[in-house]
Design brief:
Distance between the termini: 16 Å
CATH topology: Lipocalin
Strand order of the largest sheet: 1-2-3-5-6-7-8-10-12-15-16-17
Largest sheet: 12 strands, antiparallel, barrel
Order of helices and strands: HEEEEEEEEEEEEEEEEE
Low-confidence stretches: 1-21, 23-27
Mean pLDDT: 84
Number of domains: 1
Oligomer: single chain
Number of helices: 1
Length: about 300
């Protein structure tokens, strides 16, 4: 049971998020929290809601503002090949909207599917003789251009479900636990390539640091509150190999993060709240107001 709980305690801590540069739809950086290293496969469903306020880049004199809501609902799962190797897949459905004085624009559709392979390089959470218990994975994955990334006459490319490019994901995840207290760090980097229109969305890095406490309420019910910070940096887009200055272009975002993971038998449920602490997005034209995520997982015993 200890192994199961520690492995799961942060699997929702920072799941897969979608953004073209900062607030759009194609994969920005990939992070997923600490995935369970127990003898369990799993399947889950997760919805992410991100709220933004933007000043129109070419309409600064009139101070025309727009409100954006970017949502992604992901079907995702993990298949455990062996003690050391795991396969994961993420299938997103994207629904984005933008409202300003001219009206509301809505875009929806299948996003870019990601497949990932994980290697468990350390895992001793089931050891009864150790005071400090460790768990760590390193992963490599590919995001495939399955989402629509072009619409004739449509200039809001950050709202489209896909990027049109094959992108490569590198992920390092490590946690240490002492008794019921734990600390988890995740660093992920996404390298992006050009699509067929010679447009390259900016590469991205995400660093997450979380503290957690495991509370065994009953034999079947576990509560794991999590508190920490998440930092995202996006590099600028490029057109034909040159920096692009006429669209959403990179920046930094620091969030305070608050999660509560509830485990009941084979079920996991997790609401997550991200509150901006500091940000400088697209030269100050874009501000993230709030991000919220809700996840549910079912864990399948491995025979």
């Amino acid at each position: 049971m200890t192994r199961f709980i520690l492995g799961l305690c942060l699997c929702f801590s920072l799941a897969y998020s979608y953004a073209c540069d900062i607030c759009g739809c194609a994969a920005s950086s990939f992070s997923m929290g600490l995935l369970p290293n127990s003898q369990h496969h799993f399947i889950g469903l997760r919805s992410t809601f991100r709220y933004f306020e933007s000043t129109q880049l070419h309409d600064v004199t009139t101070n025309r503002l727009s409100d954006e809501l970017f949502t992604s609902t992901d079907l995702f799962g993990r298949y455990k090949l062996s003690k050391r190797f795991q396969l994961l897949a993420f299938v997103p459905y994207v629904h984005n909207s933008k409202t300003d004085s001219l009206g509301t624009i809505r875009v929806s559709g299948l996003g870019d599917i990601t497949a990932l392979a994980n290697f468990v390089f350390v895992h001793n959470t089931d050891s009864l003789s150790r005071h400090f218990k460790h768990s760590g994975t390193i992963g490599f994955g590919v995001k495939m251009p399955t989402g629509n990334y072009f619409r004739p006459g449509f200039t809001e490319i950050n709202m489209l479900p896909g990027s049109g490019s094959f992108d490569y994901v590198f992920n390092l995840n490590y946690s240490v636990q002492y008794r019921s207290f734990g600390l988890q760090n995740e660093t992920s980097f996404t390298y992006k390539t050009e699509n067929k229109y010679l447009y390259k969305f900016g590469d991205a890095i995400t660093i997450t640091q979380l503290f957690f406490y495991r509370w065994n309420v009953t034999e079947n019910l576990k509560l794991i509150p999590q508190l920490g910070a998440n930092f995202v940096h996006n590099w600028k887009d490029r057109k034909n190999g040159k920096l692009s200055e006429d669209t959403f272009n990179g920046g930094n975002l620091l969030n305070a993060q608050l999660n509560l993971l509830t485990l009941y038998k084979n079920w996991g449920f997790s609401p997550q709240l991200f509150i901006p602490v500091s940000q400088h997005l697209n030269g100050g034209y874009v501000k993230q107001k709030l991000m919220f995520r809700l996840s549910i997982n079912y864990f399948i015993n491995k025979k």
